[in-house]
TrEMBL record:
This is XdhC family protein. Gene3D superfamilies: NAD(P)-binding Rossmann-like Domain. PANTHER family: ALDEHYDE OXIDOREDUCTASE MOLYBDENUM COFACTOR ASSEMBLY PROTEIN (PTHR30388), MOLYBDENUM COFACTOR INSERTION CHAPERONE PAOD (PTHR30388:SF4). Residues 15-77 form the XdhC- CoxI domain. Pfam families: XdhC_C, XdhC_CoxI. Residues 173-315 form the XdhC Rossmann domain.
Length: 351
């Protein structure tokens, strides 16, 4: 599954290029609890087709009803929505919050852009598809839009004259090794909106790969990392347990802005990896501070599917800026619980 924002904008562009009336809804303010964060977007076509989300569903239903009725002119007093952007607020009262499925005390405000320009949408989508980070500015007076490259992700801003929202290319994940654990993790990453690349020079592993939607390459991992050019929306995860494949790739990844760099393995293997990198590759303890391992959060898992859940949870937490309690780290949790698997073969795999 691709990045949701890109999907929304691409669909909206296609509707407008086909001559359909449509609107773009953006969550611009929230009070109390909110189902969707500020900056979330949704597109709605005149025939009721919708892509994206601004709530848990009830607000979408209300927007669909109100605007399809207006487009169809089936009810007196309904006018075809047009003109400059407008605001709509949901959950102002407790009754309304309950009606629209908002949490207790939750209120959100949307900015509705009517019939966004197809050419501007096309330029934005093409920029995102080429891997650029784009700042989109909407003037509230007339709905005119300007686009410019951004250097870093920014929070949505709204003042009396304009809305500024930054859109980035989809998040990317590079996985080293094409084993069973990688298949589970790649599947979870794909439905979480990541573009997934899997690298494994071992033909016997690539030949058994079965996850559609992930790109599989056969070059040496360190070369793949260099070509991948990880940025702030990228993560690199080594899953082979083979130092010949993992170590150089991890070293290359640590030189980039990747938001997450980590490797599978036990506490002992992780310590050995650090030691190798210091002794043989000249890295320092400071260089290795960003290297995560053992990766994942501690949920007592032992099977590949459960281990993948723990790894994906940690990656998403880091992506979303959530600092996890230290006792959720695998190494810390095992140290506290003195977990020692009886089967040595499970040491590398146990979360």
């Amino acid at each position: 599954m691709e990045n949701l924002d890109v999907m929304v904008l691409r669909t909206l562009r296609d509707w407008r290029k086909a001559g359909k009336r449509a609107l773009l809804a953006t969550v611009v303010r929230t009070w109390g609890s909110s189902p969707r964060p500020i900056g979330s977007i949704m597109a709605l076509a005149e025939d009721g087709a919708v892509v994206g989300s601004v709530s848990g569903g009830c607000i979408e239903d209300d927007l669909i009803y109100r605007h399809t009725q207006a487009y169809a002119a089936q009810e007196p007093g309904h006018q075809i929505p047009s003109g400059p952007p407008g605001f709509v607020k949901y959950g102002v009262t407790a009754d309304e919050a309950h009606r629209f499925g908002l949490p207790c005390g939750g209120t959100l405000e949307l900015l509705l852009e009517y019939d966004p320009d197809a050419a501007s949408l096309n330029a934005l989508v093409q920029a995102l598809e080429s891997g650029r980070l784009v700042r989109r500015t909407v003037l509230l007076a007339d709905g005119s839009v300007t686009l410019e490259d951004a250097q870093a992700p920014e929070e949505l801003t709204l003042d009396g004259t304009r809305l500024v929202n930054t859109f980035g290319p989809e998040y990317r994940m590079l996985l080293i090794g094409a084993g069973q654990l990688t298949e589970y993790l790649a599947t979870m990453a794909l439905f979480s909106g990541f573009a997934v690349t899997v690298c494994d020079p071992r033909e016997e592993y690539r030949g058994a790969w079965s996850v559609a939607g992930a790109m599989v390459v056969s070059d040496m991992p360190d070369d793949v990392v260099t070509a991948f050019r990880p940025d702030r929306r990228s993560c690199v995860v080594a899953l082979t347990h083979d130092p010949k494949l993992d170590d150089l790739a991890l070293m290359e990844a640590l030189r980039t802005e990747a938001f997450y760099v980590g490797a599978i393995g036990s506490r002992r293997n992780n310590e050995a990896r650090h030691q190798r990198m210091i002794e043989h590759f000249g890295l320092t303890a400071a260089d290795l501070q960003r290297l995560r391992g053992p990766i994942g959060i501690f949920i007592g898992s032992k099977t590949p599917s459960e281990i993948a859940v723990s790894i994906m949870a940690e990656i998403l937490a880091v992506k979303n800026g959530v600092v996890l309690p230290r006792d959720m780290e695998v190494a810390q949790a095992k140290n506290l619980r003195a977990v020692q698997p009886n089967d040595p073969g499970l040491v590398c795999a146990t979360r």
